[in-house]
């Protein structure tokens, strides 16, 4: 808890498959830090077979059973398959569609806010979502004993609404990864964006089950990455630079201690207290399938260099190459 009684809330911002789950797990190995990964998961699929990072079916995990019990004291409708923490308004399709557009800069966000304020249904939905977000974080911190909450949700327009919750003292870790590597995971997620062991991919259910996300063409994958990065840039441009730091996935993997040291300094915690065998710590993370891997070894994944074809690289370069180069990727 922050000195002014606000919750220390750290948001990992970036494109999906940029290393946010790895970073969350590494940070969770510190006794003062707690995470459940993403706070508004949207692709858990069949909740009866979805696995927590501890290996148990999530509905059978003691940690999550306790969270459910605590949440239902204030929110009887709380369900492990739907936290009620998505900033959405299902009763109004037009407003809901507006809410799902990515962050697009000051002018667009001002217009979006005006339209949202005109909707009574959104006001009711927002009050409910904010309450669920606050109470979920309180429940997780109380269950774990941590004081700093890490949210690896990544999405910029989700962060916009979280920044307006007065009980949260939010700081941001902006994680960047070579867009070509990210695009490959979008194109072939089962192979390049999930657990190493195929038997626990697709939420822990294995490859025999239906894939949740659809595969993408390189055109769409490159554009998706570019839009995610642009959206994050728009949001960060409106914040004081003291509230956020930027790291690279590649540096996290190749110089883990130095990168974590930078983050711990930013968060105000002692690096020496962290457990370097981060997989030995009790984790209850949802999100990317790599949460189900077992090794504490941090390895740089640059398979894109040997997998992407010349044509695919040219397509990426045409659509997102300039942005990739801005972050130092040649």
Q: Could you walk me through the main structural features you see in this protein, from its secondary elements to its overall organization?
A:
There is one protein chain. The chain has 330 residues and is α/β, with parallel strands linked by helices. The chain has a single domain (7-84, 131-326), classed as P-loop containing nucleotide triphosphate hydrolases (Rossmann fold). The protein is 45% helix and 9% strand. The chain contains 14 helices and five strands. The protein has helices at residues 20-28, 62-74, 93-99, 106-117, 120-144, 156-162, 179-187, 189-192, 201-204, 218-237, 249-254, 256-267, 304-307, 310-326; strands spanning 7-13, 33-35, 148-154, 168-176, 244-248. It has a five-stranded parallel β-sheet with strand order 2-3-1-4-5, sandwiched between helices. Helix 6 (156-162) runs parallel beside helix 10, helix 7 crosses helix 10 and helix 10 (218-237) packs parallel to helix 14 (310-326). It is globular. The mean pLDDT is 92.
Topology:
Layout: E1 7-13, H1 20-28, E2 33-35, H2 62-74, H3 93-99, H4 106-117, H5 120-144, E3 148-154, H6 156-162, E4 168-176, H7 179-187, H8 189-192, H9 201-204, H10 218-237, E5 244-248, H11 249-254, H12 256-267, H13 304-307, H14 310-326
Parallel strand pairs: 1-3, 1-4, 2-3, 4-5
Helix content: 40-55%
The succession of helices and strands, N to C, reads EHEHHHHEHEHHHHEHHHH
Distance between the first and last residues' Cα = 42 Å
CATH topology heading: Rossmann fold
CATH class descriptor name? Alpha Beta
Count of extended strands: 5
**How is the quaternary structure best described?**
single chain
Low-confidence sequence ranges: none
Can you tell me the overall shape? globular
Strand content: 5-15%
Count of individual domains: 1
